[in-house]
Amino acid sequence: EPSEPPGLASLSPGAPPQAPDLLYADGLRAYSAGAWAPAVALLREALRSLEVLGRTRRDCGASCAAEPDAALPAQLLGAPQSASGPRAWEPLLLRATLRRAECLTQCAARRLGPGGAARLRVGSALRDVFRRREPYNYLQRAYYQLKKLDLAASAAHTFFVANPTHLQMREDMAKYRRMSGIRPQSFQDLVTPPYWAAYDSGLELLGQQEAALALPRLEEALQGSLAHVESCRAGCEGPEEQQPAEEEEEEGSQGGLYEAIAGHWIRVLQCRQHCVADTATRPGRSFPVPDFIPSQLRRLQEAYAQVGNVSKAMENVLSVLLFYPEDEAAKKALSQYQTELGEPRPGLGPREDIQRFILRSLGEKRQLYYAMEHLGTGFKDPDSWTPAALIPEALREKLREDQEKRSWDQEPPQPKSLPYWKDVLLLEGVTLTQDAQQLNGSDRAVLDGLLTPAECGVLLQLAKDAAEAGARSGYRGRRSPHSPHERFEGLTVLKAAQLARAGTVSKPGAKLLLEVSERVRTLTQAYFSPERPLHLSFTHLVCRSAIEGEQEQRMDLSHPVHADNCVLDPDTGDCWREPPAYTYRDYSGLLYLNDDFKGGDLFFTQPNALTVTAQVRPRCGRLVAFSSGGENPHGVWAVTRGRRCALALWHTWAPEHRELEWTEAKELLQEEEEEEEEEEEEGETLSRDPSPEPPSHKLQRAQDKAGKLLRVREEL
Ligand SMILES: O=C(O)CCC(=O)C(=O)O
Ligand SMILES: [Fe+3]
Questions:
Q1: Per-residue pLDDT for 696 more than 60?
Q2: Where are the domains positioned within the chain?
Q3: Would you say 430 and 487 are in contact if contact means Cβ atoms under 8 Å apart?
Q4: Of 473, 597, 665, 667, which alpha carbon lies 20 to 30 A from 675's?
Q5: Sign of the Cα pseudo-torsion (114, 117, 121, 122, in order)
Q6: Mean of per-residue pLDDT scores for the chain
Q7: 228: pLDDT confidence band, cut at 50, 70 and 90?
C-alpha cells in the first residue's frame, strides 16, 4: 500500500474533480490511518466534486433545454418527413430527444473532460452518505487533530444539524462549546441553504411586530425557497433518479419503448413534485413545514399590510388565492384592500413567479394523476392545495379513504403543533416522558434529556461555588423562606455572570446557565406556544438542602402548594391573577440537576391544594414544564437529606416583562470573552478540555466502508 493516498497527488484546485466516491474512499482510508491533513484534503475534495457534478448537470440541463429547435442538425432534419398523419409528432419528438442527449453528453465532456457524462452517475448509496453529511463528521475529528478548532466546530455543527439525535456528536458539541478558544461564529452550518435563516428571522421579526424589518427577510426566504425548488427540479433529470421505485420496477425495465419513456417521465415528474417537500424540510428533520410556500405568502401579505403597502399586500393575497381560491380570510383581506385602494388598479395581479409556479405544478399533477388512474403508477401529492377537480373521480374516493385510515389507525389525534414540536425535540435530543394526560392534568409535561450528566455537573459546581462565595462575604446558610428545616441558595444569571467576571465561579458554568435557559425556552415555546413567542422573564438556579438534625418528624413541605401566576384560594379553588402573584408569568419550567437527596419530589394537586394528582421525581436533565395558572397548583415535598438543585424558569408572552438581566449577563460574558481572546492562546484551552472522543463505532464503519469502496474500485 502506498503511504501517500493515490487521490491526493493529483488534487489541484479548479481542475475538474475526480469521482467523488473514489475521493471519499481515499479520504476515509487516510482518516483511518490517522493521516489527518490528507484526510481533510481528500474529504473536502470529495465534497467539492459532488458539488461540481451537481452544478454541471444543472447548467448543462439548462443550456441544452434552451437550445432552439433550429439546432437540430441537418442529418436529423433531412430525414424523410411525414408531416401529417397520425404519427407525425413521433419522429419530431424522438429526433429532438436524440439531439438533446447529444447536447448533454457534449456539455458534460466539455466541463469534466472526456467521459464526463459517465462521471455524472453517482451511486445512490454515496449520495445518501453525503445527504446525511457524514463527511463532516470525519472532517471535524480530523480538524480537531490538526488543532484547527474553528474549522472543527463548523464541521461538527454542520454534521449535528443534520443528525440531531447523534449522541456522540451531542457530547462533542457540548465540549466544543465549552472551549473558549472557539469563536461563537464558528458554529455555523456550512450546508443549509440560507433561506432557512431568512425564514426564521423573518418570522421572528414579524412576531415582534417589526414588519418593516421582517419584510426583506421574508422576501429573501421566498426567493430562496423558489430558487431551491428550481435547483432541486433540475436534479430530477439526473441519472441517479433512474432507479425505478420498487413496485414499478417490472414494468419500467421490461416495457417497450413508449412504456419505458412514460415510466421514466413519470418518475421525473414525481421527483419534481417532491421538490416542494424537499425545500420545506429542514436538514435533520423528518417533516416538511406544512404549506411552506403559501404560508410564506400569507406572512408577506400580513407584513405588507402592517407597513401600509396595500398594493404589495394585495399582490400577495392574490397569490394566496391562486393556491386556495376559497380561503375566507384571504377573500376578506382582498376586498378590504380593494376598498382601501379605491378604484381598481389594472396592473395589480398575483405575483408572476407564483403564477408560473402554480401553472407548471398543475400541469405536472394532471399527468401524474392521469398515470395513476390509467397506468397504475403511484404519486404522493405533497401539496394540500391541489384542487379536488384535478383528481380523477375514480381516485378521489380511494385517496380520501387512505387519508382517513392513516389519520386514525396510525396516530392518536395530536395537537396541531406536533410536527414542529417533534422536530424541536429531535434537534435537542430530548424525549417526552409524560404528557398532560399521563400527568392527570392539562398543560403540563415531563421531558428528559435536556442536559448531559457533565452539564449537570458544571451547573451544580456553579451553584456550589456561588454559595461558597456568598458564605465568604458574610451571609451564610440562609434559611429557606418556605421551611425552617432547609437552607436555600439562589443564583440569578446576572449574579452568575458577575461572579464569573470576578473569577469566583467558572465562566463556562455561567455561560452554560444562559445557554440552558434558552434551551428550555425554545422547547417550552415549541410545545406550548408554537404560534406566539415566549420570553424568559426570570431564571433562577435554586438549591434546597436539608439542615442536619432537624428532620425528625418533619411535617412541612419544602415548598407549599401554590400556583405561579395567581393567588390560590384552596377553599374555593379560585386563583386570583393579581399581585402579589407574578401575573405575567405564562409558563413555568423546572429543570432538575440531580437526584442524590431524600424527599423533594415535585407534585401537582387539585385546586384544593390537598389532592395530589401527579408526582415527579427530579433527576439530571429532567424538565417539568407547565402553564403557570390555577390549573397547575404544585408543591415540593420536604428535602430530608442532601441538597436538591434545580433551574427554575418562568416564561412570558409579554415582551415588556422579558428578563433584561439575561441580556446583560450575556453581554458581560461576551465582553469578558473578547478581552480574553486577545490574551489567550489556543493550547491552553485544549489542555483544559478533553478532546472529543473519536467516533469509534463510526471509525469501524468507516473502515468497512472504505474497504467496500476500495473493493469496488479495484473491480472497476
Ligand atoms: O423546585 C421545584 O420543583 C418547584 C419550585 C416552584 O414551584 C417554584 O419555585 O415556584
Ligand atoms: Fe412554583
A1: no
A2: 14-76+112-191+680-716, 242-409, 424-673
A3: no
A4: 473
A5: positive
A6: 82
A7: very high
pLDDT at 188: 84
Band of the pLDDT at 421, cuts 50, 70, 90? low
Catalytic one of 644, 688, 701, 711: 644
Quote the pLDDT of residue 678: 54
564 in contact with ligand 1, CB cutoff 6 A: yes
Expressed in angstroms and rounded, the spacing between residue 53 Cα and the centre of ligand 2 is: 58
**How far apart are the C-alpha atoms of 689 and 175, rounded to whole Å?**
7
pLDDT at 286 over 70: no
Residues 53 and 122: their CA atoms lie apart, in Å, by 9
- Test site for ligand 1: of 602, 622, 645, most ligand atoms within 8 A of the Cβ: 602
Q: What is the amino acid identity at position 432?
A: L
424-673 maps to CATH 3.40.50.720:
no
Q: How does residue 683 score in pLDDT terms, banded at 50, 70 and 90?
A: very low
Identity of the amino acid at 303: A
- Percent of the chain scoring above 70 in pLDDT: 82
Ligand 1: atom nearest CA of 648 is 9
Residue type (1 letter), 291: D
Q: CA-to-CA distance for 276 and 236, rounded, in angstroms?
A: 13
CA distances, 121 to each of 16, 56, 113, 238, 241 (Å): 15, 12, 14, 8, 10
Going from the C-alpha of 527 to that of each of 275, 291, 415, 423, the distances in angstroms are 28, 20, 9, 11
With a cut of 70, say whether residue 242 has pLDDT above it.
no
Phi, psi dihedrals of residue 640, rounded to the nearest 5°: -105, -10
- Number of CB atoms found within 10 A of residue 266's CB: 23
Ligand 2 midpoint to CA 33 (Å): 55
Q: Tally the C-alpha atoms within 13 A of residue 342's C-alpha that lie toward its C-beta.
A: 0
Query: Which amino acid type is present at position 171?
Result: E
Half-sphere exposure of 634 (CA within 13 A, CB side): 27
Residue 11: the pLDDT is 59
d(CA 134, CA 576): 55
Query: What's the whole-number mean pLDDT along residues 239-262?
Result: 61
For residue 308, with 0-12 CB atoms within 10 Å meaning exposed, 13-18 middle and 19 or more buried, which class applies?
A: exposed
Residue 715 — pLDDT band, cuts 50, 70, 90? very low
To the query of whether residue 701 is one of the catalytic residues in this protein, the response is: no
ipTM over 0.90: yes
Q: What's the pLDDT at 165?
A: 62
Give 541 Cα–ligand 2 centroid separation in angstroms. 13
Q: Where are the alpha helices (DSSP H) in 529-646?
A: none
pLDDT computed for residue 253 by the predictor: 53
Grid coordinates belonging to 305: 399590510
Residue 405 pLDDT greater than 70, yes or no: no
Residues 246 and 377 sit within 8 Å (Cβ to Cβ): no
CA of 690 relative to ligand 2 center, distance in Å: 38
